[in-house]
Structure formats: structure tokens, C-alpha cells
Amino acid sequence: HTYAYILVEPTGLRLAGFQNIENQNSESIAQATAEIIKECKKHHITISAIVSDNAANLKHALTNNDPHDQNSIKSMIGESFFRIACAAHTSQLCIRDLIQDLPFLQEYLSQVIEIIQYINRVDKEFKKYCPLKIPNFMTSRWNTLSTCARFILDHRDIVNKILQSVALPEY
Questions:
Q1: Tens digits of pLDDT across the chain (171 residues)
Q2: What SS3 class is residue 49?
Q3: How many angstroms separate the Cα of 146 from the Cα of each of 10, 44, 66, 92, 149?
Q4: What's the start-to-end Cα distance of the chain, in Å?
Q5: CB atoms within 10 A of CB 142
Q6: What is the rounded distance in angstroms from the CA atom of residue 83 to the CA atom of residue 33?
């Protein structure tokens, strides 16, 4: 696994690089982050905040400020910083929470997911009509639901043809 970082300032790109991580646990991520911060310090770059998605391992690695915990960044480099949740991932979580309270949207989105999953199961048959890559729905990816719904709407004639010719009587 590779942990990538890019530092941007108003004047442009300042520093970019990669850290290879054997596993994705919070301790490994904290260690890689500490190494990145040390590298930044060599270039006189101060890190005051880090943006990450909301995965538990990332959240723990970046928010554990216990100076007595040897796996915390605070104990590794002697300072802490703010963790900012990625706006895209946070928006997806907000949308998911909103949908949970709206049964008509739940039904619509369940149908979108069911259709995309079906099309992916009959991929070879679908490719006869549409050579485009079929999107996958992943609950952990912020934009896949929108991508799947847009794909179905943009290719509704082909989707209907597949559902009528291959899926009947299932649909």
C-alpha cells in the first residue's frame, strides 16, 4: 500500500512524495505520517492540519494525541495538528443519513443499486449493447451512487432492453 502526500501553498506545489506501508492499521499510518512530517520539517514546512477520509484507522492515527502512547504522532514528533474530515466523504455520510429518513429515496436508491448489480452480473450480455465500463456501487466511495444513477439514466434504453430480454421474468 502506498500513502501519498501533496503539500500545496498559495504559490503552488511545494512537496510531494510517497510512503510505502505494509498494512493499513492506525499504527502504520501514524508512523508513515510522522515520517512525512519529519520530511516536511527538513524543507521548513510546518503542518498544521491534515485532511483525510473518515476511515477508522485514519481517524485514530491522526487524532491520537496521547504523548504517552508510543504509536501516536504526538509521541513520535512531539507535536500535534488538526485532522480535517474530507468534505466529499463527509457529504456522502450526510447524504446517507438523509436518505435513511426518506423512504421514497431509499426505495429509489435500492433500485439503482439492484439494477447496477444485475448489469454487472450480466456484463457480457450488456457489453453487446454498450461497450462502456459499468460503474460499481461501493458504500465507502462518496460518488458511486450518483455515478450509478447517472449511468442508468444516460443508458436507459440499453438498460431497459437488457432488463426486458435477459432479466425477464425476474424484473
A1: 555 566 655 565 555 666 667 777 888 888 888 888 888 888 787 777 888 878 888 889 889 988 899 989 889 998 888 888 877 777 777 777 777 788 888 888 889 989 998 888 887 878 887 788 888 888 766 678 888 899 999 989 988 888 887 655 554
A2: strand
A3: 32, 41, 39, 10, 5
A4: 41
A5: 20
A6: 12
